[in-house]
Specification:
By secondary structure, the chain is mostly helical. It has one domain. The longest helix has 24 residues. This is Serine/threonine protein phosphatase 1.
Length: about 35
């Protein structure tokens, strides 16, 4: 198991926070597009 793979599995909390923020923004944008259409 390479170190990069292990780092990818065990994400730092800052990366998880950024990842969840990106997903939330993506979901909100998808809802807005669906609402506008």
């Amino acid at each position: 198991m390479s170190s990069s793979l292990r780092q990818g599995i065990i994400l730092p909390w800052r990366s998880q926070l950024y990842f969840s923020a990106v997903i939330t923004k993506h979901l909100l944008t998808t809802d807005e597009i669906r609402y506008l259409q």
